[in-house]
Design brief:
alpha+beta; Pnp Oxidase, Chain A; six-stranded antiparallel barrel; 6 helices; binds flavin mononucleotide
């Protein structure tokens, strides 16, 4: 028999994958009434269990006419209103989409914990003072990289990128300022859903919804 085409190898195998989720449960009484505390608690669990990239969140944005795109961001903080903070290039594809359509969804999947978190809400730019403060904590190579990379733009070659990095180094040395096009956003949720895998696909799903008098918690069918 001839070797199947590469694109058949995975697609046949994934049909047969079956994993029953059984490590934990999630009840209304287990969660904090404030999703900011709950997000913090689940992030702490992810950190403690040493999963890879515990703060990696898939961020979905959409164009003004509703065409979605998604990519991974590293979350750098959780605010009192349960907003998650991330940093990027304001002129990148996501930056432009968030400017034109300031709503987004964030998703954490901690496979080892059998947990998913979905965060939906509106987007705000962080103040310059916060951007400067966080930029200053980044390693030098990352600070220079923020100057070197016109994120999401086509570039002719790797060599062009390396040359831009060398230029940034020559220009700024050991103390690059924050580029005006680089900074953070807050995703301010109106909805936060916690998902805990359970056997037989009867998973636990608890959802926080923000109303005029604060957060309420409900349960959704899996
Ligand atoms: C684990 C991981 C973490 C990432 N963290 C960030 C981040 O914090 N900020 C960022 O701008 N890009 C980050 N990226 C790269 C983005 O996923 C994406 O490629 C880039 O921001 C360009 O996206 P855009 O063209 O949609 O704007 C990360 C990628 C991975 C896989």
């Amino acid at each position: 028999m001839s070797d199947p085409a590469p694109h058949h190898r995975a697609s046949d195998a994934i049909l047969a994958l079956r994993h029953d989720f059984a490590s934990a449960t999630l009840a209304e009484g287990d969660v904090h009434p404030d999703p900011a505390h709950q997000l913090d608690a689940w992030l702490a669990d992810a950190l403690a269990s040493q999963v890879n990239e515990p703060n990696a969140m898939t961020l979905a944005t959409a164009t003004a006419d509703g065409r979605p795109s998604a990519r991974v961001m590293l979350v750098r903080g959780i605010d009192h209103d349960a907003a998650v903070r991330f940093f990027t290039n304001y002129e990148s594809r996501k930056g432009r989409e968030l400017e034109a359509n300031p709503f987004a969804a964030g998703l954490f999947f901690w496979s080892e914990l059998e947990r998913q978190v979905r965060i939906e809400g509106s987007i705000e730019r962080l103040p310059d003072a916060d951007n400067d403060a966080y930029f200053a904590t980044r390693p030098l190579a990352s600070r220079l990289g923020a100057w070197a990379s016109p994120q999401s733009q086509p570039i002719a070659s790797r060599a062009v990128l390396d040359a831009r990095e060398a230029d940034a180094q020559a220009r700024f040395g050991a103390d690059p300022p924050r580029p005006p096009h680089w900074g953070g956003f807050r995703l301010v949720p109106t909805r936060v859903e916690l998902w805990q895998g359970r056997p037989s696909r009867l998973h636990d799903r608890l959802v926080y919804t923000r109303g005029p008098s604060g957060w309420t918690i409900g349960r959704l069918a899996p």
